[in-house]
Amino acid sequence: MHNAFFITGTDTDVGKTFVTASLLKAFLDKGHDARAIKPVQTGCELIHGVYQASDILEYKKINANNSFEPAYAFEFPASPHFSAELENTAIDSDVITDYIQGHIEQAEITLIEGAGGLFVPLNGTNTFLDIMKAVRLPVVLVCKNILGMINHTLLSIEMLERSGLTVAALVINGTKPDNGIAQSNIEYLRQRFSGTIIVLPQYAESVSGMIEAADEFHSFVENHTQFFAADEIDLTFDKNHLWHPYTSAISPIKAQPVVFAKENKLHIQNTVLIDGISSWWCMATGFNNERLNKAAQTQMARFSHVMFAGLTHKPAVDLGKKLLEILPEFDRIFYSDSGSVCVEVALKMALQYQHNINKKKTKILTVLGGYHGDTAGAMSVCDPVEGMHFLFKETLAEQIFTPRPPCRFDEEFNPDLCAEYEAAFEEHKDEIAAVIIEPIVQGAGGMWFYHPKFLEFLRNMCDKYGALLIVDEVATGFGRTGKLFAYQYANIVPDIICIGKAITGGFMSFAATLAVQKVVDGISKNGGVFMHGPTFMGNPLACAVAYENICNLQEIDWQKKVKTLETIMKTELAKCKECASVADVRVLGAIGVVEMKEPVNTAALLDFFMEEGVFIRPFEKTIYLMPPFITSRDDCVTLCNAIYKALKLKKY
Ligand SMILES: Cc1ncc(COP(=O)(O)O)c(C=O)c1O
Fold this sequence. Notes:
By secondary structure, the chain is of the alpha/beta class. It is 38% helix and 18% strand. It contains 21 helices and 26 strands. Strand 18 and strand 19 form a beta hairpin. Bound molecules: pyridoxal-5'-phosphate. The site of pyridoxal-5'-phosphate has 14 residues, from helix 13.
């Protein structure tokens, strides 16, 4: 078992090194294989061309063998970013993280001493707190018992806890006996911090001081394992009592325990996986995005929710303006809680529109191979035969189905193929209230990419037969296909659009249905009001995050990132065509698909992909990638290679 603690301070010069060395002694005293490391050391003396790191010399006083070179050592005693700058170099925080992980694997207990406090800069972007968040170790926070320490200590604790880190102990260093202020500082901190507090008297920073201080740490050392229990997940309970989506309750596919996620990496207990499907396509810009976290935290501190009937708020208005900026053809927005619900809302809008303009049209026309969600109305327009909801067919509203969109995205469009669709419109012209379709990409129904001209044909049919055109962009919206919205590949304006999933960058469930003025006017005629109102409609937290997410997307040059992923997947997945079991390989934007001739063994493939260090979850005949846009070239190649290897080794 490898355990480790990160030792940081409320400020520089509070005695971190003294505490680290004393703690090292306490662990060694209790028979543990312990080591102390200092990843970044400034103020080093250059002797015979080698920097002598002063803090490491202190550890050596406790254990002569404890002599590990820092990852970065600099001569000038200042903030690491500045000391590095003076030597015309820069600190790479990934190097530090790797350095720490490397040490942790080599010892039973590793004590990692930071430099200064949480926001000490390493470079222009990262601080020590980023390192702490990346390695996610319990933290020992050291403060010095002087005037003003309460403020710095509480700020540090607050920030550590908000960063999801455990404060294993607060060490109050240098308490002078019989000093009234020092005693009152301790008393106050005891009221405000309920965790372990270790008070060190005024030990001299000498070996004898460290030896004495080690005694104060002995009970902490005896109980240290409690701080590592937080990440433990009761998988037996999960297996026996929690339902997972589309999964057998009796013999479920193993659910992997995620303990942390950042950017395009899922940290499963003891391994890290490269994410290949953006958590069912919503996590477009990666996990744990600081910008989104901050937006949520700021809004949370004001209020996380209020009802939307008779009340409104800034996040809803700001998001609304942003949505109309990127979808200028639309006029009115209905916020809801999930993709399925925003589809229900769209269908109800269409039905209420037709009802209110006195057209007795109550059916929805759609194509086979579609998927629109799991609620009743949404299920009624999913593929009734091949889709996931065929079991409920008899109980759902009966809709009108036509074949899958006829022409591939990358083929020349043949208008003759539209004849049978036109016949369906003609046959049901008095019934069709609306057409609903996933534009360009049919997602969960098999990742089929069809020609934009088919959308233009549908637009013409809707105009000719007085039906509304609903595009369901829940999966395709926000850049996934290479356009901000997939319908923009065609020269059309839909009447209603459904957006969800990536609207909050995957931060939380949220969706919206937008309508053009014609729809709003129809519904509102003769005093009509739209009859829908979920409790969590317009949730302020979700609105604030969605607003920030769209701003972020606009700033990160997503087009370039999506294009790069498309180019890599086109090259790397093409190799899969050489396997006889592959029916087709296709790539559009940040979506890469290998369609097999037969359904695959999802459980076997999941296991294989785990071994390859990737998270890819195939379904039916489809093995696909929808990586977060921020995925690096190397990680994208690794994802593609994992699929190729699975095919070569026949792991399906
Ligand atoms: C096109 C489409 N519409 C609607 C939904 C339903 O969204 P949710 O799962 O958020 O209810 C999905 C989900 O995959 C989808 O792909």
